[in-house]
Amino acid sequence: MNIEEALKTEYAYMAGEYDVAVVGAGHAGCEAAYSCAKLGLRTILFTLYLDSIANLPCNPSVGGTAKGQLVREIDALGGIMGKVADECCIQMRMLNRSKGPAVYSPRAQMDRNRYSAVMKSRLEKVVNLDIRQAHITDLLTDDTDGIRVCGVMTESKAVYSAKAVVICSGTYMESRTIRGEVVALSGPDGLPRSVGLSASLASKGIPILRFKTGTPVRVNSGKIDFDVMTRQDGETDVPPFSFDNEMNGITVPQDQVPCWSVWTTDETREIISSNMDRSPLYSGVITGIGPRYCPSIEDKFMRFKDKNRHQIFVEPMGRETNEMYLQGFSTSLPEEVQIRMVRSLPGLQNAMIQRSAYAIEYDLVEPLSLKPTLESKVVEGLFTAGQINGSSGYEEAAAQGIVAGINAALKIKGEDPMILDRSQAYIGVLIDDLVTKGTSEPYRMMTSRAEYRLFLRQDNADMRLTPTGHRVGLIDNERFERFENKKNSIASEKERLRNTYIAPTEELRVILEEAGTTLPPSGISLAELLKRPQVSYELIAPVDKNRQPLPIDVTRAVETDLKYEGYLKLEQEKIEKFAQLERRLLPEDTDYEQIKGLRLEARQKLNAIKPLNIGQASRISGVSPADISVLLVYTEMIRRKDKDE
């Protein structure tokens, strides 16, 4: 149905004309709409409920292992999540400190209601962006010359034209929530669900899947005995998510709210075991595929029978509410069973549940039907981002949202797309995994998925991506100038340390021995000294007589770069080899059935996914090294043929 046909529908009317329509105002939708509007395009953002913009329906936190890297990358590109998270943070920690800088991951507990309110306020002030509460039921397309988007239509028959559409429906598309035998047709937190849009997408030939996820109970802190729990305080030396805030000296809150942890008991196990016949996961009520890396508590006990107990984190929902979130205690068991389960935990014997846990099933798009730009291969001008693409998590959604928004804008402007590869960003790993490998369960970002994680650190996301954000237009000249100054300061300080030598003095001996290392036999550069595991930038300050004061973000970068210089050099060599395969482009119209030497499975997979280059082809399941050798010969033949012509 195109716009002309839509307007013939009873009660239909033309409501507006836009460059980009973004459907869904979760974390993906907010980033997509923000980036499109900031890039000068007239944008409209649709949400089912205005007061749930950027809702945190599951854990009210931002960041975490690998996810913290995503948030900093979003900020480095010019996105909004990091700044809002910094403003609404009530506790901040740096995870994986014992494992080294490659996997350091910032994580912040959010004031849930404030995060949503601040995001809404920020978006309402963005020039070129309109926000509308409406239920989108139809994707409108022009089928004159292939299938191309031309707009959307709401449940109330309002028609909006658009040159590009970004759908960020989260877990709302044809969703239903499940608690034991009770099934409700609703979205998260009892909010309205999306009805009709999934069928509209399917009618265009877009493949639809169905997944499941869930969320734990919320309890009132007034009836919790915290004395029997383990207290977990925040850390005040963690940098903010936003590099802009870091450069401007804005720090994380000093008055942070504590979190707590407990372990399940034998009683918890017994309650769950005796009620497994009422679990929708095992009774067949739930048909969607759930996340392997974030299972429900009943699934944990069933799958990990060797573990007698599981850790549960009791986390605040905000400064002005008594609600506490039980992280790790997701369940779809009936409400009366949930009450007994919660009260079996230490300190929660008298707990009052304020919101019951539930599982939620929802429709999504098969991510293999997407290009690396997150544009659909089926419908031109249609982009999707977030959980509709099979991912799980706010940060994964926001990362896709900014990529989809930027690419929608660049497409309308007639400019080259922005594609981040696996060596540039965790965002590149995330999107490449989804569009190349697909996923059979809600996809969660982990540091182990990134081959070049020593290079893709949270502290250097600005060095990696700010130039890209500036090139596409999301990073303004003022911020880019501050970035360039920081970059130059890091380079200058590293050079100074390499050229500053120190003799093996008594003062140095005392400093090094107290740190657990030995005095060098002769003069040594400060840069070489810093490479020792026991030595830090601050430790050698007393013997670095000519040191000038520098911002902490600069000194952190200097120390990390020098300390891991050898490893980074090896990583760079691997990245260059990777880049060679990424540069071997495959024509989009290649018919792999005609390439002799490819195995049948490889031909089928390659024709279905249409990889952009040899590197992407090598990561497709079912494409062997032998098939890659055939493709290398094929691309060389094309190169020689083009050269001869």
Give a structural overview.
Helix 2 packs parallel to helix 12 (394-413) and helix 4 (81-88) crosses helix 5. By secondary structure, the protein is of the alpha+beta class. The mean pLDDT is 94. The longest helix has 23 residues, at 477-499. Strands 10, 11, 12, 13, 14, 15, 16, 17 and 18 form a 9-stranded antiparallel sheet that branches. Strands 1, 2, 6, 7, 8, 9 and 19 form a 7-stranded mixed sheet that branches.
Summarize the topology.
Blueprint: H1 3-6, E1 13-23, H2 27-38, E2 43-47, E3 61-63, H3 67-77, H4 81-88, E4 89-95, E5 105-110, H5 112-124, E6 129-133, E7 136-142, E8 148-154, E9 158-167, E10 176-179, E11 182-184, H6 197-203, E12 208-220, E13 230-232, H7 243-247, E14 259-263, H8 266-273, H9 280-283, H10 297-303, E15 311-316, E16 323-330, H11 335-343, E17 353-355, E18 358-365, E19 382-384, H12 394-413, H13 426-437, H14 461-472, H15 477-499, E20 501-502, H16 506-515, E21 524-525, H17 526-530, H18 552-563, H19 565-582, H20 600-609, H21 614-618, H22 625-644
Parallel strand pairs: 1-2, 1-9, 2-6, 9-19
Antiparallel strand pairs: 3-5, 4-5, 7-8, 8-9, 10-11, 10-18, 12-16, 12-17, 12-18, 13-14, 14-15, 15-16, 20-21
Helix pairs in contact: 2-12, 3-12, 3-14, 4-5, 8-11, 14-15, 15-18
The number of distinct helices, counting runs of at least 4 residues, comes to 22
Uncertain ranges: none
Rg over CA atoms: 26 Å
The fourth-level CATH homologous superfamily of the largest domain is FAD/NAD(P)-binding domain
How many DSSP E strands? Answer: 21
Looking at the structure, what is the overall shape? globular
Class by helix and strand content?
A: alpha+beta
- Named CATH architecture of the largest domain: 3-Layer(bba) Sandwich
In terms of quaternary structure, what is this?
single chain
Please report which band the strand proportion falls in: under 5%, 5-15%, 15-25%, 25-35%, 35-45% or over 45%.
15-25%
CATH topology value of the largest domain: FAD/NAD(P)-binding domain
**How much helicity do the residues have?**
25-40%
Mean of the pLDDT scores?
94
Distance between the termini: 44 Å
Biggest sheet descriptor? 9 strands, antiparallel
Q: Tell me, what is the CATH class of the largest domain?
A: Alpha Beta
Domain count: the total is 3
